[in-house]
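batch_manifest entry 22 of 60
target: Amidohydrolase-related domain-containing protein
source organism: Hohenbuehelia grisea
requested by: lab member K.T.
priority: normal
notes from requester: please return tokens only, no post-processing; we will run our own comparison against the previous entry in this batch. if the run fails, retry once and flag.
--- input ---
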Amino acid sequence: MAARRLIVDVHTHVYLPRYANLLRSRTSVPRIVSAANNEDSERLLILDHEPSGGRPVGAQYWQRDEKLKFMDMHGISMSIVSSANPWLDFLPASEASKIALELNQDLEDYCETSPNLNGTRLQRLYGFGLLPLVPEITTSTLLETVQQISQLPHLKGLIMGTKGVGKGLDDPALDPVWAAIERAKLTVFLHPHYGVGGNPWGEVENGHVLPLALGFPFETTIAITRLILSGALDRFPSLRILLAHSGGALPQLSSRLASCIHHDPLVASRLNHDARYYIGRLYYDAVAYGSEELEFVSSAIGRAINYSPDGKSAVDIGSRRMMFGTDHPFFPPLSATEKWPSVTENLDAIEGVQTWSDGEKDGVLGGNALTLFDLQE
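--- output ---
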């Protein structure tokens, strides 16, 4: 009988009870409201102009038992759980700083009291904390929160949106924060929320299909590219950033980006390397839903070795920087007994990459995450 494969989900969310109650107390988006025709049901309005009055939400969004039940149903060994967007973006600085500390401790408790992975001292749940990244927040408050996260043993990094403190991730005001994250050896999970503007998408006809399918990945692409162009990855060479949705369009457009930089001396002077080099410095979830997409991203990552100044790179096999994810509890199946397509399609996509060996597939499924988050026994 073949041994069960280790599967680690690095892209899986929770609305912790404290956070869900905050959303219930609000009168504007983001908020949780009772469904119009069923007072026992609730709906989440996370973006402006939600179609159909928002998305149905329930216990799977905040109850740990539901998370574990989902994991058991799909053979997922461990999960690195993160608070879902929009995080604290909508709060004033004083309130955001207080609730960030509370939610980080809540998430530590959520993970620390989870079951052990069979036969090991590891837990089944670990987490990404969050920072109060809002305008008017002080650097000292952000550094205090980074320190808190680094001292909570079951938090292995932090989830971050694309706005920073309102001016983007390339804002020089964030340099002390990047430095603190790098020193603490935390991983930043970069995740979108706002898309790239609503006007091009035709929401009336297409709902949120285009903003989610294209707007979210483009948002990530723009945010991480601005960070690269700022020289931050040169200033902080050990900073670890995990990109949602397989890096958006960055792998596909990296050579075009490199060409445009080459023809702009002002921008080129900020960087120590060809833009394609930085593709191999990042990490990527494998939430792409297709083998061809995963194979391309892997190839683009591995190509970074060609742009290393000494002809060497720590990333000579692109799959080593890629990790399985599900985006749970979003995109549920229509039937409660049905397996989630967001799981089965992404597992099939990993299995279907013809250029990956079984060992590489095992790495993407779980081994790479164990290494990144230092979860080896």
